[in-house]
Amino acid sequence: MTAPTDEPTSRPVEPERRPPARSKRSASGDDQYRMPEAQEILERVIAIIDAAPGMPMSASVRVNREELLELLDDAVSRLPDELRSARWLLKEREEFLARTRREGEDLIEDARSRVAHMVQRTEVVKAAEHHARQIVDEADAVSRRMRRETEDYCDQKLASFENVLNRIAKSVAAGRDKLAAPRIEEAELAELESRPPADDPAVFDQES
Fold first, then answer.
1. 16 lies in a domain?
2. Residue (of 185, 175, 158, 206) closest to 69 by Cα position
3. Under 8 Å between Cβ of 165 and 111
4. What is the pTM of this model?
5. What are 3-20's pLDDT values in tens digits?
6. Radius of gyration from C-alpha coordinates of the chain
7. Distance between CA atoms of residues 189 and 46, nearest Å
8. First to last CA, the chain
9. Could you tell me the CA-to-CA distances from 50 to 38, 56, 153, 178 in Å, in that order?
10. Candidate from 20-29, 107-116, 165-174 with smallest mean pLDDT
11. Residue 86 domain boundaries
């Protein structure tokens, strides 16, 4: 008769730890818009919590507390960089609008200069004034169009950044709730253990 062999105790599988995604650049070297690093880190935290093994008869999961705290601290530390990027985008918008305004004024001044050098005959002057008005109108139209496009672009970027901040806040709150859940369930389990058993004779003895 062979002696029984000890089987290894099954252990929960730790979730795979993946490094944060790196930013990609286009072939020409220009920066492409990418997901902010803080959001990438928080999505990784969510993935770790989702993939973590659950605890028996509980909604809690087993996670590496130190790893999650380190990731959350890293995400918080990256927020100032992303805020600086947003401020830089606003500065670029103002500079672009100022440059567009100067170009429009130069076009208007050039049109006026050409009108002043034209021959002061009636028909020629009328044609010159009409042409000058066309140039001014076209310059104003181009300036307004470029301003609208710039404002729309900045609004989209700021809206995207606002969504990122909202997701960060929700992710941090969800992570804190996950970390706090085991303590609440331990208190509930202790309360259940302190109650008398249901089949205790003292509970059901109504005649004594």
1. no
2. 175
3. no
4. 0.28
5. 444 433 334 444 444 444
6. 34
7. 27
8. 56
9. 18, 16, 35, 10
10. 20-29
11. 37-191
Which is nearest to 178 in space by CA: 60, 17, 65, 52? Answer: 60
Does residue 65 sit within a domain?
yes
CB contact burial 87-118 (16+ within 10 A = b; e otherwise): eeeeeebeebeeebeeebeebeeebeeebeee
Query: How deeply is 130 buried, as exposed, middle or buried, from its count of CB atoms within 10 A (0-12, 13-18, 19+)?
Result: exposed
Number of domains in the chain: 1
- Dist. CA 9–CA 205, nearest whole Å: 44
Residue 10 counted as domain residue: no
Return the amino acid letter for 35.
Answer: M
**pLDDT tens-place string over residues 135-151:** 889 888 888 888 888 88
What DSSP string describes 27-39?
A: TTSPBPP---HHH
Beta partners for 45? none
Residue 137 lies in a domain: yes
Which one-letter amino acid corresponds to residue 194? S
Is the Cβ–Cβ distance between 59 and 174 less than 8 Å?
A: no
Task: Give residue 43's identity as a one-letter amino acid code.
Answer: E
**Whole-number Å distance between alpha carbons of 129 and 107:** 14
Task: Quote the CA–CA distance of 61 and 142 in Å, as a whole number.
Answer: 58
Q: Are 74 and 175 in contact (CB under 8 A)?
A: no
The alpha carbon of residue 204 and the mean position of all alpha carbons in its chain are separated, in whole angstroms, by: 60
